[in-house]
From TrEMBL:
SMART domains per record: HTH_XRE
Name of the protein described by the UniProt record: Helix-turn-helix domain-containing protein
InterPro entries linked to this entry: Cro/C1-type_HTH (IPR001387), Lambda_DNA-bd_dom_sf (IPR010982)
Domain HTH cro/C1-type, chain residue ranges per copy: 16-72
Entries under Pfam families matching the protein: HTH_31
Length: 166
């Protein structure tokens, strides 16, 4: 199994940010609860997934957040690797950015989901995917292929590699 380090780091950052926000803390408030002295910029880069976090620093962050590190890592692992074989990972941001006319029902749904969630990805079971394929009037296999394309190349849609910022 190959590890996409960038995706793992991004999801880890999203989970850290979600935990902090669930507690109603600013980065400064989290920083005040840490054992070591780190800059607010460093905390921000951890949450954005642009900076790698050492194991010791991750444990320190988890302890400050009152979250067992193994629970955080298990959630990150599920999101990145999609442990459940009956589930398909969908990149909501990629669906929203895609211009394919046939995906308009799925695009509207993805826009709503993004408004409700901090995560740009979601896991769907096979039956939900089959219903979505019906709404999009395409075979499930075709929708699966399109979703796989959007997950591997988010933000490009059917365009020529330019990101669409909405």
């Amino acid at each position: 199994m190959l590890i996409d380090a960038d995706a793992f780091q991004r999801v880890l950052g999203e989970e850290l940010r979600k935990l902090r926000k669930q507690r109603g803390w600013t980065r400064k408030e989290l920083n005040e609860r840490l054992q070591s002295d780190i800059s607010l910029q460093t905390l921000a880069t951890y949450e954005l997934g642009t900076r790698h976090c050492s194991v010791v620093r991750l444990v320190e962050l988890c302890m400050a957040l009152g979250e067992p590190p193994q629970d955080l890592l298990a959630r990150v692992h599920r999101r990145v690797f999609g442990d459940d074989p009956g589930q398909v990972r969908v990149n909501l941001a990629g669906v929203v950015a895609d211009d394919s006319p046939g995906l308009s029902p799925l695009r509207r749904w993805a826009e709503d989901r993004l408004k409700q969630s901090n995560s740009p990805e979601i896991q769907l079971d096979r039956s939900a995917l089959e219903r979505m394929a019906e709404l999009c009037r395409m075979p499930t296999t075709q929708l699966l292929a399109k979703l796989a394309e959007l997950s591997s190349n988010p933000g490009t849609g059917d365009r020529t590699g330019t990101d669409r910022h909405t």
